Amino acid sequence: MDHQTVNSATTLDEWRRQIDALDTELLRLLNQRAAIACEIASIKVTSGLPAYDGNRERQVLARVVEKNTGPLDQQSITDIFAGIIRETRRLGTQRMQEQSGEAAARVQS
C-alpha cells in the first residue's frame, strides 16, 4: 500500500466520522422538531384548529428554499423538507386524535 492510498483512507474515515456526527445531530434536531409539533398539536386541539395548514407548509418550504446555499438544489431541499413536514404532520395528527379521544372519554365519564 503506498502513501497516497493510506492518506486517502484516513481522509475517507475522517469524512465518514463527520457524516456520522452530523447524522446524530440531524436525528436530535428532527426529534426536537417532532416534539415541538406535538406541542403545537395540543394547542390545535384546544383551539379547535385543523391539523393541516397549507399556508404554513408553503411558508416553511419557501423559507428553506430561500435560505439554501447548496450544494443541494432547490428541488432536493423541497423534497427533503416536504418529507419532514409530512412525517411531523402525521405525528401531530396522531397526537391530536389521541387527545380528542381522551377529551371525549372524560366527557363520557
Core attributes:
single chain, 109 residues, mainly alpha, Chorismate Mutase Domain, subunit A, 0% strand, elongated
Computed Rg: 21 Å
Question: Structural class, judged by helices and strands?
Answer: mainly alpha
Count of runs of 4 or more consecutive helical residues = 3
- Broad shape: elongated
CATH superfamily: Chorismate mutase
Distance between the termini: 75 Å
CATH architecture: Up-down Bundle
Q: How many structural domains can be distinguished in the coordinates?
A: 1
| Mean residue pLDDT | 88
Instruction: Indicate the low-confidence ranges by residue numbers.
Output: none
Oligomer: single chain
Find the CATH topology: Chorismate Mutase Domain, subunit A
**Helices and strands, in N-to-C order?**
HHH
Give the C-level CATH assignment: Mainly Alpha
Strand content: under 5%
Helix content: over 70%
DSSP strand tally: 0
Biggest beta-sheet profile: none
